[in-house]
Amino acid sequence: MKQLWFKRRGWVYIPVHPLGFAVTILAIIFMVPVVLAVDRNTHSITDELYQIFIYATCTAFWWKWVADKTS
After folding, report:
1. Fewer Cβ close by (within 10 Å): the C or N end of the chain?
2. CA angle 34, 38, 39 (to 5 degrees)
3. What is the rounded CA–CA span in Å between residue 35 and residue 51?
């Protein structure tokens, strides 16, 4: 029997298993120091968004991939 980690609701994946919550929390924990480091070294909001974009899209891609495969 396949264990569901996420449940799909339209375009959104909702964690329904402890491993789904763990993957979501790990993605958030990874992004917090990235945002803080980028925020510390930028001079404008545009610079910050450009630098965060790469990390945020890669993290979101892998999170969505896991959510899609386990839903």
Report:
1. N
2. 115
3. 9
Q: Which long-range contacts (CB under 8 A, 24 or more apart) does 5-13 make?
A: 5/66, 5/67, 5/70, 5/71, 6/66, 6/67, 6/70, 6/71, 7/71, 8/67, 8/71, 13/64, 13/67, 13/68, 13/71
Each residue's pLDDT tens digit, 27-53? 999 999 999 999 998 888 999 999 999
Evaluate if pTM is beyond 0.90: no
Within a 10 A sphere around the Cβ of 67, how many other Cβ atoms?
A: 20
User: Cβ distance 52 to 34 under 8 Å?
Assistant: yes
